[in-house]
Structures are given as C-alpha cells and as structure tokens.
Protein: Ras-related protein rab7
Organism: Arabis alpina
Amino acid sequence: MDSLKNRTLLKVIVLGDSGVGKTSLMNQYVYKRFNRQYKATIGADFVTKELHIEAKSVTLQIWDTAGQERFQSLGSAFYRGADCCVLVYDVNNLKSFETLNNWHMEFLKQANPMDPETFPFVLIGNKTDVDGGNTRVVSDKRAVEWCASKGNIPYYETSAKEDINVDEAFLGVAHKALSNERKQDNIYFKDISASVTEMLEEQPRGCAC
Ligand code: GDP
Ligand code: MG
C-alpha cells in the first residue's frame, strides 16, 4: 500500500452537452465497456481510476453531470477543488461544439479558480467513428483553433464506442490535473483527501450510469 504522502487525488469535472458521450467515455476508460443505450445521467456522480505517474499513485476522481441546464443547480460546491475540466463535444454535432464557450465560461464562473487564465482544460471531440467520418461537421482544424483561442487547451479526438484514443485522452487529463494540483494550494482538496481516500478504499467505484 502506498503511503498517503505518495498518493494524490485529482478531481476532474466532465462537461458538455447531453448526448455527446461523456458517460460513455468514462465507462470505456474505467470499465472498458460501451453501452449503446442512452441513459441520461441523473444528477452527478463520479468514477475513479488509479494511475501511476512519476512514481506517484494518482487517483483520478472523474465527475459526470447530467449535461443539461439543470446542472447549474449543482452549485459551486460541485466544481470547487477541481484540478482539471474536460469539455466534450460530438464532432458530428455543430451545436455541441458551439456551446463549448458556454461550458467553458460556466465552469470558470462556478469553480472560480485562483488563476482562470491558466486553469487546465482539456477538449475531447468524441464519436469520430460515426459513419466512417462522413457525418462529421466540425473539422479538427476548427477545434484546434478554438483551443488556441482559450490558451492552448490540449485537444483529443476519440471514439468511446471503438475505444480509440480514450486512454490517451485521460492520460493527458491526468498530467494536466497533476500540474494544476502542484501549482495551487488547493484547500478543498487537502481537507477532503484523507476521508475520500478512505472512502475509495472501502467502495472503489461510484456509478455514473
Ligand atoms: P452523455 O449524455 O454525454 O453522457 O452521452 P452518453 O455517453 O450517454 O452517450 C449518448 C449516446 O451516444 C449513447 O447512445 C451512446 O451509446 C452514444 N455514443 C457515445 N459515445 C459514442 C461514440 O464514440 N461513438 C458512437 N457511435 N456513439 C457514441
Ligand atoms: Mg451522461
């Protein structure tokens, strides 16, 4: 068992329009399974994944949301202490790309990070598999430009269905989150880390289905 000193809990919030594949990405990443059925996530919940980065035992605590307007009722406590925010859109759905600005703004408003200019975001363009790419409406160039306009957000394209690039995307998220955790004296994280670590040992998974 790692000592607590070498363990790090990183809180990751996943945001984006309903139906873009947030829950599917998390399920593929953590449980290596894909479910064709669409079940709207109710409220918010998290899944966890243990990683080893630079001799550190890292627990990614990945929070899923309903993705609908009502998510706002989750309030700032839900966002507080986040080490990284993952924004997800569907490359076949223009509206889900256009609303990224709103999700980005909403996160910064609610989480209120110490340095909003450098807070780590990651963008994921999901569902690259659909119809062999023929229904795609957002080019990677356009997505990369959006990322550049927000201060060089890393960008990954994935298929949760075919398990393409999912591990790579979340590894990128873990590195981003770790860099933020090192930079900030995150009081919320420090307060809850011990109790959450205990909780995770007893009950290793939250269900986001
Ligand atoms: P959420 O509302 O953002 O959590 O979206 P879900 O994960 O529930 O996915 C919405 C729908 O899109 C479901 O029917 C999924 O099976 C489907 N889906 C999710 N990811 C992919 C993908 O990469 N490719 C394809 N073809 N379908 C996907
Ligand atoms: Mg969902």
Q: What stands out?
A: Confidence is low (pLDDT under 50) at residues 185-209. The chain has one domain: 7-202. The beta strands are 7-15, 45-53, 56-64, 84-90, 121-126, 155-157. The two ends are 30 Å apart (CA to CA).
